[in-house]
Amino acid sequence: MDVHLGSVRGGWLVASALSCVAAAGPSVAHAEVSASEVAEQGRYLAIAGDCGGCHTRPGGGQAFAGGYAIESPVGAIYSTNITSSSIAGIGAYTEAQFSRALREGIRRDGTHLYPAMPYTAYAKLSDADIRALYVYFTKSVHPVDAQPPVTRLPFPFNLRTSMWIWNTLFLPTARFTPDPHRSAEWNRGAYLAEALEHCGACHTPRNALMAEQLRREFAGTRVGGWYAPNITSDPVSGIGAWTRDELVQYLKTGALHGKAQAAGGMAEAVGNSLQYLTSQDLDALATYLLSVAPIRDQSESRARDTWGAPVEYEAELRGRATTAGSEQPEGNALYSGNCASCHQPTGAGTADHSYPALFHNTATGARHADNLVAAILFGVDRDVSDGHALMPRFDATSYVQPLNDAEVASLANYVLHEFGNPAVHVTIEDVAGTRSRGFAKGLVLGTRGLLIFAALAIVTLGVWILSRRRRAHS
Amino acid sequence: MNVRRFNNGDADADLVVVGSGVVGALIAEQIAGAERSVLVLEAGPRLDRAQVVENWRNLNFQQRVSSDYQSLYPQSPLATAPLEFPPNGYVLLTGKDGESFHQGYIRAVGGTTWHWAASCWRHLPVDFQMRAKYGVGRDWPISYSDLEPYYCRAEEAMGVSGPNDPALQSPVERSRPYPNDMIPWAHGDTRVADIVNPHGYRSVPIPQGRAVRPWKSRPACCGNNNCQPICPIGAMYNAIHTVQAAEAKGVTVLAESVVYAIDTDMNNRVTAVRWYDRNRQSHRATGRAFVIACNALETPRLLLIAANAQNPGGIANRSDQVGRNLMDHSGFHCTFLAGEPLWLGRGPAQSSCLVGARDGAFRSEYSANKMILNNISRVGPATQQALKLGLTGAALREEIRRRTIHGVDLSISLEPLPAPQNRLTLSKTRHDALGLPCPDINYELDDYVHRGYDAAAQQLRHIGNLFNAAEFEVTTSLNANNHMMGSTIMGSDPKDSVVDGNCRAHDHPNLWLPGGGPMPSASVVNSTLTMAALGLKCADSVQRALEHA
Q1: Which of A72, A186, B250, B329 is the most buried (most CB within 10 A)?
Q2: How far is CA A269 from CA A135, A180, A197, in A?
Q3: How do beta strands B258-264 and B330-337 pair?
């Protein structure tokens, strides 16, 4: 479809079919929409797609100028500059090239992107939304001519061409197709969850080749040091017991008092993206998520936000020397000295919920203690319009108190036993593992994935060499 | 750049810093950021915040209400710091006003910012010219405007919250706004300001190194109200934050490393310092530049201990001024029960302060003052007072409550003038566990301070009347405020001063002695921000020197 530019009301005019960003589904035709409106829609879509989550460096990076280091065990993958700069960004991309990058993971120069870029989700984006994003990024985003650091992974991980095998196997080719038996709201929610917000990038377990296992969609999995939990509609293992309003509140604010609070990558998703969605879109997203087929973990008997109760321990600690800071610190002393000032000696947090209760809290009730350990090590940093929640980190860079693996394990086990799921136990090795996996987001290649990726790369290289030889012979 | 370590434990670095408090840590961080190797030697141990917090909670009632901020901090047996409950006798105080010089300071990684109140005041421009303007004290060799950019940098480094409304600033001369606007006032601050300000007492917000929003990995202050002796959540600036940042930039910090000797060459350049490790083994650190930033007691003590053949009176001491001109803000308290509940004691320990008498022509005759409206919970003292009344049960509870919400404690600071006879020397009879001499201090205040006390006491009686005060009391003995200054005094003449305007020792071209020691005037405000600003100015000087080396 062509873009016609003409001066109307002092702006441009674009005659095209464009997606309506409201709750009516992915694409609603409009006869004529001004370019500034298209760009505004693109801006909204870029927020819903959380492009800035990776392409804007946290802590003062220029918008969409890239340079955010996504750590992997073989080196950092740096996000690219996607500003309108024709030197360093994507200003020189045609819409077709832009579409190919988003939906197929192939840059303008033909090189493959690493799947740290969630192009398998963006493959489902509608043509109209691709266009709006294109207009926004190439016309509205301020150009930044600075080049971010170049990703340099060692051999064979630098052989990006191997991604074509992976793409052949796992890249969906179909755009999002509405289900005619479902409501417009449900379809809008499905489109948001599957395509734009790419929820599955974190919440869906991946197979041996690091592709999302569609049969276990949203069943929960490890993401770096964190655990993206089961968000299917199962009332025990998932979030099926939450009301739609509760889920909307969680998505909007990252905090649901007496149940859960967003940390790690989810805090970023709420802060960068979800909090800015329209209420119709949030409703749609919640409607869809609560309809996702339930997946039960048979080892779970109780929802992760229903464990625990307040305790009264304070008096037992007083009048005797603390073991905090000693060679063998006890969990209760570590809790009292490091945590109780905010979460209170009883674990009940504060009445205004600025500091959450540690019981009835998904971080302490889950079958996996990853998020409890990660919250202790990396803290919680959730900046939303109704306030900036910051729990300090307690890893080696802590300004409050660096805790070693044994201390974190002891502390976590105290918290689990007193306030959470007492069947869960954290070992020193668990803490070391979380510490080394770090504050990652999105696709993180584990050792196994790396080996498989390396094998793919070498096979690709072999095929390429053979084909060259054959060509040379013929 | 990494410090070179040798098999025998010795080390070599571009810069060797002795002391890991706010001043040493800021310098170490800056120089490491300039791609230089930096070694920090700290006499005391690394602290565990949770342990200190628990020690505070377990401290007995008497020590808590007596503001014992020292004994909850573990000490290295080889690096003693003063203790008062019971007194450990580390510092011997003599002279007419020796008893007003009981200083509390911490020898540990991060230094005394572990238990400061984070007040981040600037000196007034006129404080740099006491002799020129008022004919008393000494002038600085640098002006306020020379230091102003460094005040800004120090405020940034410490994440200071202060009033951006000039009507509430002291001083108003600023080139940049505060990193965070003032901590919002509680009812008591506002009410007191409303009552006293029409009478010229000028209550203003205290600029402070904490914020009510997260600041660079620091959580927001939530008003635990025990900044002193320990912020339990790390919201208050503590030099351990800068130490952590410095270590991330490659600085090596060795705790429990007591420096005892300083080696100099033919040109009187410092070539090395020697230290004892925790096992009393001696090691040597060579370097290109050396910073000694212990504090205004431990720095002169080390300089005197380290006397060598070429510097028989002590390092940097050809002027004989090392250890002299010791100052601290002479303090006293005014307590009363206001005629209305003021609800003080919620939020940070210090919030507002009366600065109407910070400056004026009277300073040619007597000391200025500032009056801090202490915001430390009055529950402790109120309980002591109520128990003395013999009350029990509900009556006791109600009386504690009444006294707590009506209680006022003003902490008044006076300005001493630098005087050579106020002096730290080395004890000939008392030694620490390493056999190093303990400090002796002679301290005598002149009438400048006593006349300032009389003026302040008169102002306080007036203030008491404004509040219909009951049980109005003003303490008569002066107390220490832990703001040690003057003992390596700054000046332009090497004959009567120890360091120049960059805190560089007159006697040694590659030795700097930043912190409170160089300050030639005390003003009436807490000294840390000025110390930090001097530290950053010193860091620039060190950086230039390393570039030219």
Answers
A1: B329
A2: 23, 30, 9
A3: unpaired
Rounded Cα distance, B356 and B368, in Å: 9
Computed on alpha carbons and rounded to an integer, the radius of gyration of chain B in Å comes to 23
The continuous run of DSSP H or E covering B386 comes out as: helix B379-388
CA A72, CA A79: separation in Å to the nearest integer?
13
**CA dist list (Å): A339 to A335, A349, A391, B114:** 5, 10, 10, 18
**In contact, B112 and B297? CB cutoff 8 Å:** no
Task: Say if CB A342 and CB A355 are below 8 A apart.
Answer: yes
CATH, range A314-437:
1.10.760.10
DSSP A293-322: PP---TT--S-TTS-------HHHHTTS--
Structure tokens at A362: 């998904």
- The shortest C-alpha distance from A60 to chain B (Å) reads 12
Q: Which amino acid is at A199?
A: C
Token pair of A308 as six digits: 């625990």
Which residues of chain B are at the A interface, by a Cβ-Cβ cutoff of 8 Å?
47-55, 57-58, 74, 213-214, 217-220, 222, 224, 232-234, 238, 240-241, 244, 248
- Cβ A35 vs Cβ A135: under 8 Å: yes
CB B539 within 8 A of CB B157: no
Question: Would you call A184 helix, strand, or coil by DSSP?
Answer: helix
List chain B residues with CB under 8 Å of A341. 53, 222, 224, 232-233
For the cut 90, the answer to whether the pLDDT of residue A180 exceeds it is: yes
- What sign for the dihedral angle of Cα B277, B280, B285, B291? positive
* Domain assignments of chain A as residue spans, ordered by start: 1-170, 314-437
Chain B positions touching A333 (Cβ under 8 A) are: 50, 54
- List of E strands, B418-527: 423-431, 437-442, 470-474, 511-512
Rounded Cα distance between A142 and A121, Å, is: 26
User: What count of Cα atoms within 13 Å lies in the side-chain half-sphere of residue B279?
Assistant: 3
DSSP one-letter string for B28-95? HHHHHHTT--EEEE-SSPPP-HHHHHHHHHHS-HHHHHTT--STTS--BTTB----BTTB--SSEEES
Query: What does the pLDDT profile of chain B (549 residues) look like in tens digits?
Result: 899 999 999 999 999 999 999 999 999 999 999 999 999 999 999 999 999 999 999 999 999 999 999 999 999 999 999 999 999 999 999 999 999 999 999 999 999 999 999 999 999 999 999 999 999 999 999 999 999 999 999 999 999 999 999 999 999 999 999 999 999 999 999 999 999 999 999 999 999 999 999 998 899 999 999 999 999 999 999 999 999 999 999 999 999 999 999 999 999 999 999 999 999 999 999 999 999 999 999 999 999 999 999 999 999 999 999 999 999 999 999 999 999 999 999 999 999 999 999 999 999 999 999 999 999 999 999 999 999 999 999 999 999 999 999 999 999 999 999 999 999 999 999 999 999 999 999 999 999 999 999 999 999 999 999 999 999 999 999 999 999 999 999 999 999 999 999 999 999 999 999 999 999 999 999 999 999 999 999 999 999 999 997
**Beta carbons within 8 Å of B144's beta carbon, 6+ residues apart:** B123, B124, B125, B127, B128, B171, B173
Closest CA to B25 of B213, B197, B237: B237
Residue tagged active-site, from B406, B483, B506, B508: B483
Q: Provide φ and ψ at A163, rounded to 5°.
A: -65, -20
Query: pTM score, two decimals?
Result: 0.92
B4-77+88-548 topology per CATH: FAD/NAD(P)-binding domain (3.50.50)
Structure tokens at B265: 């060459």
Q: DSSP string spanning B212-251?
A: SS-BTTBPPP---S-TTT--TTS-S--HHHHHHHHHHTT-
Interchain pair A399, B213: CB under 8 A: no
For residues B203 and B353, the answer to whether their CB atoms sit within 8 Å is yes
